[in-house]
Amino acid sequence: MTRQNRIKDSAFCDGTTSLDKSPTCGLPLGLDFDYFAGQLYCCDPFVGLTRVGAFGGLATTLVPTKDGVPYRFLIAVTKTSDGPVYFTDASAVYGPKDADKSIQTGDSTARLLKYDPRTKNVTVLLSQLAGAVGLATDSDASFLLVSEFIAKRILRYWLKGEKAGTSEVFLTFPGGPNKIKRNQEGNYWVAVNVPKNDSTVAPQGVKFSPSGEILAMVDLSKEYNSRITIVIEYNNKLYVGGRNFPFVGQYDIKYVRNLTSTKINLYQIPIIVVEARMPF
């Protein structure tokens, strides 16, 4: 739950993906689970950074604003084991309803932020980002990866070591990278939407290592004919979702390796409706 009104108006909210209803029903665009504390952190652009306790229930708003100014487009969050919570505001100008405008105008007002649960302070780590919609850390929280959808790249922001507090371009893509998710082996998947000449996109899943080596790429355009948001690998399966699809796709994966490259063949099992209310 993200809003008190969400409980009162459950019939109004259930089954909807309408952005017009989001101020009442909630819009949890970014989620990350703290396995040590059993808590769920959530980015809701209409509420702020929130947290749900180990037993569920109504989310607690941790930081609704930065210096008194409400966030416009909170969208990604990751909790590190040593305390801080990192999250992104995809734009200081455009909200979720105007996401396409932010892309069309090349908006570069996004930010990477840090929330300290002990002091309850929020610090801006990076600004002037172009559509910061994805966020992930490595296994020992030495750096953050931030995807810039509009700039078509992933940045690496160092948290530890000699480069701490600095950033660098980590990967670039022919299309916009969205959510980044680390798998069980410590590698990453990112959803990438490559523009085509006919004004549509070719959705892809791209797997890469912590050093930036591309390990695999898979074309998802057969089942997905518009922008996807997320690709997750878990127990030799891929799960794919997007705002415009009322389902989550599940795929079996099989790796075919040779001396020059790693390819992935996807053998689709029947698409299953895991959740028909994908918000973004």
Automatic annotation (TrEMBL):
InterPro entries: 6-blade_b-propeller_TolB-like, Strictosidine_synth_cons-reg. It comes from the Eukaryota. It is found in: Vacuole. The keyword Glycoprotein applies. One of its GO terms (cellular component) is vacuole. Residues 81-162 form the Strictosidine synthase conserved region domain. Keywords: Glycoprotein, Vacuole. Belongs to the strictosidine synthase family. This is Strictosidine synthase conserved region domain-containing protein.
